[in-house]
Amino acid sequence: MSDEQRRRSNCRSYLLTYIRRGKVAKGPCEICGTTENIEAHHPDYSKPLEFHSLCRGHHVMVTRGLISLGA
After folding, report:
1. Under 8 Å between Cβ of 45 and 11
2. Staple 40 to which of 22, 48, 51, 70, CB 3.0 to 4.6 Å?
3. How many CA within 13 A on the CB side of residue 28?
4. Under a CB-based contact definition with an 8 Å cutoff, are residues 68 and 58 in contact?
5. What is the domain partition of the chain in residue ranges?
6. Is the pTM of the predicted complex or chain greater than 0.70?
7. CB–CB of 51/41 below 8 Å?
8. pLDDT tens digit string along 4-54?
């Protein structure tokens, strides 16, 4: 596992722990508003608690650069 893969994995694990403890909640998709198949998108893996809630379809599109979340 590369350093980058480890950093991303640690970030995801950190957030998942907070979600399981009820300290953080994923909301509806920030693009379409659905509440189904919500995933967390991290624009910066050094900030695990700063994420965007996106449905699976929009998460894939953002990750591939097909759409932007804006700045």
Report:
1. yes
2. 51
3. 5
4. no
5. 3-63
6. yes
7. yes
8. 999 999 999 999 999 999 999 999 999 999 999 999 999 999 999 999 999
C-beta atoms surrounding 31 within 10 Å: 17
Cα 71 to its chain centre, rounded Å, is: 16
Q: How many Cα atoms are found within 13 Å in the side-chain-facing hemisphere of 49? A: 6
CB-neighbour burial class of residue 44 (10 A; exposed 0-12, middle 13-18, buried 19+):
exposed
Q: Tell me how far apart the alpha carbons of residues 7 and 39 are, in angstroms, rounded to a whole number.
A: 18
Residue 71: band (very low, low, confident or very high) from pLDDT cuts 50, 70, 90: low
Q: Residue 40 pairs with which residues in a beta bridge?
A: 53
- Mean pLDDT in residue range 52-68: 96
Between CA 10 and CA 19 the distance in angstroms is 14
State the number of CA atoms in the 13 A half-sphere of 27 facing the CB: 8
